Amino acid sequence: MRKINTFTLNITVAILDFLYQGRHFQRFWVLEEIARAPYFAFLSVLHLRESLGLRGQWHTYLMKQHFEQSVNETEHLEIMESRGGNAYWIDRFLARHLVLVYYWINVVYYWISPRAAYHLSYEIEIHAMETYGKYLSEVDASDIDICSVMNDEMHHAQELYEAMRIIDPDRLTVREKDRKPFPPDVSDLDSVTLVSSVEQK
Ligand SMILES: [Fe+2]
Ligand SMILES: [Fe+2]
Fold first, then answer.
1. CATH T-level fold of 2-199
2. Distance from the alpha carbon of residue 150 to the mean position of ligand 1, in angstroms
3. Which of 30, 87, 92, 170 maximizes the CB count within 10 A of its CB?
4. How far is the CA of 69 from the centre of ligand 2 (A)?
5. Which of 46, 5, 1, 36 is nearest to 171 (CA)?
6. Interatomic CA distance for residues 129 and 154, integer angstroms
7. For the whole model, what pTM was predicted?
8. Is the confidence at residue 154, as pLDDT, over 70?
9. How far apart are CA 52 and CA 127, in angstroms?
């Protein structure tokens, strides 16, 4: 699955690189529009699983993470819009059709294999971070907004890496061996786990 993720991403990046040569903020806007979709998809699946009684141990933690990431990506989108990223009809047309397809791909992908879906988004966040880094080093090193967006993308990648680490390959539950070293939010712990973790200290 990871090879398919990397292959798909490389092809998509090559197409976008070709289409958006020299049009930095249009390219960033399209990337941000698409990059938000997985977080909506993850939240949708988590809500649905919860409604079906399939809540995993870190369900609440993951929902909080993905909600915050989706809000943060919207802030990035607003920055790109303030720089004229969505000024042209053709860019809006392309991004809004791509995002519809990409959202549903992520819904299905996350339901079937959450870890593989996280890996795809992880690769995209790494790519976004590198794209902004390249802009800063080659075009405008003093662009504080882009520097801030680049740091956010790095945090998103780290959060997705943690999410990949804690969940079972094919289920939104946590591997037994990872329960103790990873308590990101004690409110997610059931009382028995919480008491035993306190007693161990
Ligand atoms: Fe972003
Ligand atoms: Fe991001």
1. Ferritin (1.20.1260)
2. 8
3. 30
4. 7
5. 46
6. 6
7. 0.80
8. yes
9. 35
The Cα–Cα gap between 132 and 140 comes to 10
> How many angstroms is it from 182 CA to the middle of ligand 1?
26
Domain edges within the chain: 2-199
> Given this model, what pLDDT does residue 172 score?
60
Among the listed ranges 66-70, 139-143, 166-170, which one has the minimum average pLDDT value? 166-170
153: CA distance to ligand 1 center in Å? Answer: 6
Residue with tokens 């946590």: 174
Q: For 169-186, write each residue's pLDDT tens digit.
A: 556 655 445 444 443 443
CA of 189 to the centre of ligand 1 (A): 30
The rounded Å distance from CA 83 to ligand 1 centre is 15
Q: Which ligand is nearest to the CA of 31?
A: 1
Residue-wise pLDDT tens digits, 33-56: 998 999 999 999 999 998 888 887
DSSP string, 91-157: HHHHHHHHHHHHHHHHHHHHHH-HHHHHHHHHHHHHHHHHHHHHHHHHT-TT-HHHHHHHHHHHHHH
Provide the pLDDT for residue 25.
Answer: 95
Write down the pLDDT at residue 186.
38
CA of 190 to the centre of ligand 1 (A): 33
